[in-house]
Amino acid sequence: MLKLEDNFPLKNITTLQIGGPAKKFVAVKTQEDLIEAIAYAKNNQIPYLIIGGSSNLLIADEGVNGLVIKNEISGIESISHLGGVTLKVKSGTILQDVVDYAINHNLAGLEKLTKIPGTVGGAVYGNAGAYGQTISDHITRVVILSEAKNLKTLTKSKCKFGYRNSIFKKNKYPIIEAAFQLETGNPENLQMAAKAVAWKRFVKYPPGLKCPGSFFKNLVAADIPEEILKNIPPEKIVYGKLPAGALLEEVGAKGQSLNGIAISDRHANLFINQGTGTAQAFYNLAKTYAQKVKEKFGITLEPEVQLINLPPFS
Ligand SMILES: Cc1cc2nc3c(=O)[nH]c(=O)nc-3n(C[C@H](O)[C@H](O)[C@H](O)COP(=O)(O)OP(=O)(O)OC[C@H]3O[C@@H](n4cnc5c(N)ncnc54)[C@H](O)[C@@H]3O)c2cc1C
């Protein structure tokens, strides 16, 4: 039996601590409950939205006029074979739990994703990554729930992973499970890599910071037209990307604030709720500085954070 809640305050669960009420809300722990929740939305002709850890969301102050389904279907299954180990991970599993599992079993390939908040489903949806590693690097298959309510397995190439992108951003199919093929790594190296990343992240995102991670996507250097790229100092390109923060810094974003939303004075792509911020103030501040970047560099910044019930940026 589903435990549906009315007018659930979404700001209580987003890392940004912003977001109006969901008309209906339910947390699901099994696949059957997920199917039942989707059926409920369809039968009542209301839209539904599946969320994980709510760590990459900017939800309108008006909230969501539909059913928000919080995915808590979790579990890790390990299968050993000649090529290494396959981890079959349910999409509501906390990403850090998988990272820890891999490190504790001397499996390489996920360690630099340490401390990225949220679930495996959210990470697959946005192809989350950090420090040169992405969630899709070792994915072999993703299981989704198709329109016919059947489970469907997509091979990696069908997932169309790109920089912070995947087919799931287009088709919105519920992600149920992801399979990772991992090889044995050196335990000390894995621990050290994860520790180094954890420290950098601790400094960038002190505990309790109310934010949704970086707001804008970085730019793939190879995709930037030559006439624009020639005006960018080469040392600004990191891991083949031009950080959006570098452009925002050039237009004076660092340290700015508006109605309870501040832009970090250390990272110009980090927008923080100071406690009283609203989604509208966040949106307006981000849009102002995106426009300044457009005017100065001719580059259109695209949000990495998912805008819920807010107009698209461009
Ligand atoms: C402090 C901080 C640091 C961060 N650092 C990074 C970083 O280094 N790299 C990075 O890539 N991101 C980073 N992020 C952003 C965020 O943590 C990631 O995008 C994360 O993968 C989102 O997962 P989630 O479960 O919270 O997704 P949510 O925010 O809940 O949802 C994000 C999107 O995924 C969709 N979705 C979620 N689950 C499913 C599912 N099962 N099926 C279909 N769609 C689904 C939602 O509908 C939504 O559109 C950071 C965020 C914070 C707060």
Whole-Å distance between the termini? 42 Å
List each distinct ligand once: flavin-adenine dinucleotide
Number of strands: 19
- Strand content bin: 25-35%
Task: Supply the CATH class of the largest domain.
Answer: Alpha Beta
Form type: globular
- The total number of structural domains is 3
Q: DSSP helix count?
A: 9
The main sheet comes to: 6 strands, antiparallel
Sketch the topology as an H/E string, one letter per element. EEHEEEEEHEHEEEEHHEHEHEHEEEHE
Structure, briefly:
The protein is of the alpha+beta class. It contains nine helices and 19 strands.
Q: Please, could you describe this protein's structure?
A:
With about 325 residues, this protein is α+β, with helices and mostly antiparallel strands. The protein folds into three domains: about 70 residues, Uridine Diphospho-n-acetylenolpyruvylglucosamine Reductase, domain 2 (2-Layer Sandwich); about 130 residues, Uridine Diphospho-n-acetylenolpyruvylglucosamine Reductase, domain 3 (2-Layer Sandwich); about 100 residues, Alpha-Beta Complex (Uridine Diphospho-n-acetylenolpyruvylglucosamine Reductase, domain 1), CATH 3.90.78.10. The protein contains nine helices and 19 strands. Strands 6, 7, 8, 11, 12 and 13 form a six-stranded antiparallel beta sheet that branches. Bound molecules: flavin-adenine dinucleotide. Flavin-adenine dinucleotide (FAD) binds next to strand 3, helix 3 and strand 9. The site of flavin-adenine dinucleotide has 32 residues, from strand 3, helix 3 and strand 9.
